[in-house]
Task: structure prediction
Amino acid sequence: MSADRAAPTLTGSLGTGSIVFMVVAAAAPLTVVSGTVPLGIALGDRAAFPATFVICCVILLLFAVGYGAMTRHVPQAGAFYTYVQQGLGRPAGRGAAYLALVTYTAVQLAVYGYLGAVAADLVQHYGGPSLPWWLWAAVALAGVGFLGHRHIDVSGKVLGVLLLGEVGVVLALDAVVVGRGGGSSGLSTAFLQPEQVGSGSLGLGLVFAIASYLGFEATAVFRDEARDPHRTIPRATYLSLVLIGGFYTLSSWALVSAWGDDQAVQAATADPGGMLLTTMQHHLGSTVADIAQVLLLTSLFAAALSFHNVLARYGYALGTSGLLPRLSGSRHPRHGSPHTASLLQSACAAILVAVCAVTGMDPVTQVFAWLAGTATLGILLLMSLTCLAVIVYFRRTRRDPRTWHTVVAPGLGLLGLAGCLVLAVANFPLLIGGSTTLATALGAAPLGAFAIGVLLALWRRPRNLETAVAQPVPETAA
Result:
């Protein structure tokens, strides 16, 4: 028996709700509404920006159709890389594996940068000492590492509590704004008017919107710890998308309505970082606005924990399949967690935070902006490759006769994602707030990771790789 076959699998009893909490927390809803939405209004599609969330949700739902169909036939927890390997071959699969690691590492580091800055400002605001951002990032990193080491159900409960808090305060604002009929101009209808949807930079607006969904696609990473993966994973994917899309659309529309179309654009342009808190102070009072500042910090912690769990499980899957050292594929005997991969992930994050601190990088304009933009390119490339892999896999194997699930929806999703990728590349310098040279260097990182994986697969065939090739699951299991 090979080491792969003997390796224990992760254990857990996650239901649909727990997995939804994991991936929605990764999307950091409060962070998106307070940061990304004002930027989308100012630089993207202006008062019609809420429509971009609907467009992106439709594209991602099309992606999810094929993504969910693959879970019936590929029982590994490697998600992107196992799906790409099944459809496009071993070299492309290994490239996708390394691309996923770089992508999620970039977004987690971006979150730590933003978290450190928010924590430092919050402590100072309440009369505490002025401490560097990286110190607060290190404290959060230690907390994330502790929870990541334990059973996945512990993380699920923590994320559930934090998520309810951040979503609740925004929904309270939404309810008050809608209940009052908006601001002096009434409720906005710009996102319902076709001529308004294209009045600003629709392309840049779509890039901001698609980046806001980052994390939803990680549902399949938790399949070994899911109670009934064949049903739980597809349901969690669909439900996550609908909840995230509905929340973003409603909340961005309420934010525009609170100000009025033209005034919202002016407010977002003048002070994008403070637009949400100013709105809360006006409609809910200063106490709620202060609570929202604290919840913004917990929102970022929840996102960091969620992405840590995703990265640890990617490391575990790659360790058991021979694409990373076998040590990464060990399971904790009591917690049933990928404890070694979790520890390695924490060490990697600590080193990267230290590098950013030593080089004097600004935690928001550089660490967060640069790496979040890079992660957006990476995830769009990964999802595009996955859509293509789904189509090729089912055309070759004929294991699923449903044309909509295996050809039409993945094909439409591929077109939509490829279009978003082109827009992201075209707007990348503006997205990261840097120069064309910097954009080229950062944009090359995801492609470089993919290329390295492909070249390594072509150069040397990993031992026991065939154990990573999925066997068909009996149709009765679905």
